[in-house]
Design a protein that fits this description.
Order of helices and strands: EEEHHHHHHHHHHHHEHEHEHHE
Structural class: mainly alpha
Helix content: 25-40%
Number of domains: 3
Mean pLDDT: 83
Low-confidence stretches: 1-13
Shape: elongated
Length: 310
């Protein structure tokens, strides 16, 4: 028999006094069952296609050779223990079905954490906090473990450029212009200049600066020169579009309009060239370009080359 004493929060039960809130406390929750490892053989019962595809990839081939992970452990190394998922037998309403890691609805950092278990070099790069990570791009946005299309890097597309063009459609358009980087001809790739996993340089450049990146191929423009053209020394992109342009030499504007962005009304002549002047054979500009006279536009080492004539 239990007797409650009002206002005191006490109850008498079996000759002992207990607090009323203690008497009404719910029973402790039963700890949720934890998933356990079941091995790849159990996974292949439903995912035969993915398992066989994985075996034929470089990823599957080197998993055991380089990381010491045999095939039986391979699925759960990335996806986590699968006993509850396997026990759900395809029933998505079963809470155990969702205990497996699928990567489809996870944030990029969660996906990357699984990949970084093995790919320590990528983790030690500038990926964290980099532009790709901030844009919620994950490893599987570019790489496919089970269904790679690229010959190298297990890319989701057949080539590096196609993989990059999934997001960088503006660059794809620039590379379709008449003067462009030789990426479309497969003479170089996006990764010739950029590191997709991150760097400490702007635009994820492999080199320390834009100019240093350009000088990897254009050593003749490097200098130092006795007479330097300051916009050239400052940044190649002052005059050139890095990915493509409809003007010769990938220039950002047609000469002499390009030159007049800085040299407006200075020295000779004091009148700006407009479209009428350029097309009517004006004798102040031969061949429609300042470079007919100022030929060493990137810099000169001639003692008399102050104005880049020679």
């Amino acid at each position: 028999m239990a007797l409650a004493v009002g206002g005191l929060g006490l109850a008498f039960s079996g000759g002992k006094s207990v607090r009323a809130d203690d008497a009404a406390a719910p029973a402790p929750a039963v700890e949720a069952e934890k998933p356990e490892l079941v091995g790849a053989s159990a996974c292949l019962a439903c995912h035969q296609e993915q398992g066989e595809a994985f075996k034929s990839t470089h990823h599957g081939e080197y998993f055991e050779k380089r990381k010491g992970v045999d095939f039986e452990k391979s699925c759960e190394t990335c996806h986590g223990p699968g006993s509850l998922h396997a026990g759900a037998a395809g029933d998505k309403a079963n809470p155990g079905f969702a205990t497996i890691r699928t990567f489809k609805n996870q944030r990029s950092e969660q996906v990357s954490a699984a990949c970084f278990q093995c790919h320590k070099d990528a983790e030690r790069s500038h990926w964290a906090g980099g532009p790709h990570a901030r844009a919620n791009v994950s490893c599987v946005s570019c790489h496919s473990v089970h269904n790679a299309k690229g010959e190298h890097g297990q890319l989701v597309k057949a080539s590096i450029k196609e993989t990059c063009f999934q997001c960088h459609s503006d660059v794809k358009g620039q590379m379709r212009r008449s003067a462009h980087m030789p990426v479309d001809e497969d003479k170089m790739s996006c990764t010739s200049c950029h590191s997709p996993h991150g760097t400490g340089s702007p635009k994820q450049l492999k080199a320390q600066s834009i100019n240093q990146s350009c000088y990897q191929c254009h050593q003749d423009k490097r200098g130092p020169n006795l007479w330097e053209h300051l916009p050239v020394r400052e940044n190649c992109l002052n005059c050139h579009n890095a990915h493509g342009s409809h003007h010769e030499k990938m220039l950002v504007a047609k000469r002499a309009f390009l030159c007049q962005r800085c040299h407006a009304g200075t020295r000779h002549p004091s009148t700006l060239y407009d479209a009428t002047d350029i097309t009517n054979g004006n004798n102040r500009i031969v061949g429609q370009t300042c470079q007919d006279c100022h030929s060493n536009i990137h810099g000169s080492n001639h003692p008399s080359g102050k104005f880049l004539y020679r």
